[in-house]
Design brief:
The complex is a heterodimer of chains A (241) and B (293). With 241 residues, chain A is of the alpha/beta class. Helices cover 36% and strands 26% of the residues of chain A. The longest helix of chain A has 16 residues. In chain B, 76% of the residues lie in helices and 3% in strands. The longest helix of chain B has 29 residues. Chain B is an all-alpha fold. The chains are: A alpha/beta (241), B mainly alpha (293). The interface between A and B is medium-sized, with 32 and 22 residues.
């Protein structure tokens, strides 16, 4: 039994069904990846879990129903890092982080949480009083992740964290994700960078046109010829390093 | 003489800032021009008038202001509950907000006319000394009180917005309502708080302009127009810009009324707004941060 069990998840956009009844099971404390091409419905899954789009289906988080309202979902410890960072431009880096801890009702914990994020992302500490809109794309992604961590998530969902980042920053972001995973947080990773995702996840789903077509371990999928052809851009076996 | 005009102008401008901020803060969150704000100001001006005039023993002025502010908050929350909430629940387009706010403004004005006619009611004098001697200047006590209360209120509001958790949430929702939901912010709490702030400001400004001029049903809408101009000139949705613009408008109004007369002044006010819309449509401080891809 995973920390989050999703059964028959369906999502509609303007009356059109975009996700056609998918089942997911996220093992606790591990990284699960969802890969697939553009428009397959990867991001929609995350948006549905965090209550940003209307959904139907059964979502059981830690043996209890997951609420429907996004603000209540965050309170249960299910936190999303949205696609395109979505930092609050106009607010400082530190204010962004404080917003991440909005659901935390113990003000005394905030300085400690801040310090923890600054330790993981030292660059954010240097820029703590800077307008977050002036950060580079990579720094904004760090901020978006740190902001989500401020909520002390039990399940962290990342929507395309490597989108639009320079290759060196992509590696840095993935290293961060592995680090967060090692600290015991369950992670759901939705990515276009299939190879890197498969390398760091323990379990992966391949999604096509709103349906899950394959479910396997990351390693098996890396060695799967069809997957390699379709998503990894080469039929040769690719190493993770 | 000039300094006296300036102080009167700033004092008038201070009331305009209360109106403009009450108007703008709703705009920052819900992205519509809340014309019902003018109706609330009229209603509060009447509430303050009757409280001050007919409650015996005559209450101290401070109590009248507080009582009216509380009534303003209740009124604003009631308008939100009965008129606006349904628009949010049904996820209707923002134009509905605009139409409903106009409807509420007209409704309040007409109800006031039904009960009190279009007569003007003058506030009783509340200060024993009507003028104060500062150096060689003679300044109306009322103007000084208005200036002091308005500035303290604005200061308190800035503290609320910049130093408290709910203030941070309000600013976040103003920037990006969807991402705010991902932070666990309940938009209903933010919207209720914003309407409470708008109601409080309408209450206080209603009493002040009721005393400055006299009380009549279309007082609020007339004054709201000044707040609206200040919001546009300051940059829609920018509280700082609205404050600066409102202070300047107050100054310009007093000086221009003195030298050119009241009719010309109204033309000048609108000319300023149109000028800004032509030259700098984003207003004094209006700048929208761009997303980095």
């Amino acid at each position: 039994m995973g920390i989050l069990e999703v059964t028959d998840l369906r999502v509609w956009y303007d009356g059109l069904e975009a996700i056609h009844g998918i089942d997911l099971s996220l093992p606790e404390g591990e990284i699960t990846a969802v890969i697939g091409s553009n428009g397959a419905g990867k991001s929609t899954i995350i948006k549905a879990i965090s209550g940003m789009v209307k959904r139907s289906g059964k979502l059981i988080f830690q043996n209890r129903d997951l609420p429907e309202k996004s603000n209540e979902i965050v309170r249960r410890g299910v936190v999303q890092v949205p696609e395109g960072r979505k930092v609050f431009a106009g607010l400082t880096v530190e204010e962004n982080l404080r917003l991440g801890a909005y659901t935390n009702s113990h003000p005394k914990e905030i300085p400690e949480l801040l310090e923890k994020q600054y330790e993981t992302f030292p660059r954010l500490k240097e820029r703590r009083n800077q307008d977050s809109g002036t950060l580079s794309g990579g720094e904004q992604q760090m901020l978006a992740i740190a902001r989500a961590l401020m909520a002390k998530p039990l399940l962290l969902m990342l929507d395309e964290p490597s989108l639009g980042l320079a290759p060196i920053l992509v590696s840095e972001v993935f290293n961060n994700i592995v680090q967060i995973g090692q600290s015991g947080t369950t992670i759901l990773l939705v990515e276009q960078n299939a190879r890197k995702s498969l390398c760091i996840c323990s379990k992966a789903y391949v999604i096509e046109n709103g349906r899950i077509v394959i479910e396997d371990t990351g390693e098996n999928l890396l060695n799967n010829k069809e997957i390699a052809n379709a998503y990894l851009g080469s039929s040769k076996r690719l190493s993770c390093n | 003489m000039v300094l006296q005009l300036i102080i009167n102008g700033i004092s008038l401008g201070a009331v305009y800032t209360l109106i403009a901020v009450g108007f703008a803060i709703v705009f920052t969150i819900l992205r519509f021009s809340n014309f019902a704000h003018g109706g609330m100001i009229s209603a509060c001006a009447f509430i303050g008038y009757f409280f001050q005039r007919y409650v015996k023993p005559t209450p101290p002025f401070a109590l009248t202001v507080i009582f009216t502010a509380v009534c303003g908050i209740i009124l604003a929350l009631a308008i939100d509950f009965f008129a606006y909430q349904r628009i949010r629940i049904n996820k209707s387009p923002s134009i509905y907000y605009f139409l409903v706010s106009l409807t509420v403004a007209i409704l309040i004005e007409q109800i006031l006319i039904v009960f009190f006619g279009t007569n003007m009611y003058g506030y009783p004098a509340v200060f024993e000394t009507q003028t104060m001697q500062i150096g060689s200047f003679r300044i109306k006590t009322m103007n000084l009180v208005i200036l002091a209360v308005s500035l303290s209120l604005l200061f308190a509001l800035m503290i609320l917005l910049n130093k408290t958790k709910i203030g941070l949430a309000i600013r976040a929702v103003a920037i990006d309502p969807n991402t705010s939901r991902l932070m666990g912010i309940n938009s209903n709490v933010v919207i209720t708080t914003v309407f409470a702030i708008a109601g409080l400001l309408a209450g206080v400004s209603g009493v002040f302009i009721g005393m400055q001029y006299s009380v009549y049903p279309s007082l609020g809408p007339t004054m709201m127009l000044k707040g609206f101009i200040a919001s546009v000139v300051g940059g829609m949705g920018s509280l700082g810009g609205a404050i600066i613009a409102a202070l300047f408008l107050g100054l310009i109004e007093i000086i221009s009324t003195y030298f050119l007369g009241a009719t010309t002044t109204t033309i000048i006010m609108f000319a300023i707004m149109l000028g800004f819309l032509f030259i700098r449509p984003q207003g004094i401080s209006g700048k929208f941060a761009e997303d980095k891809v």
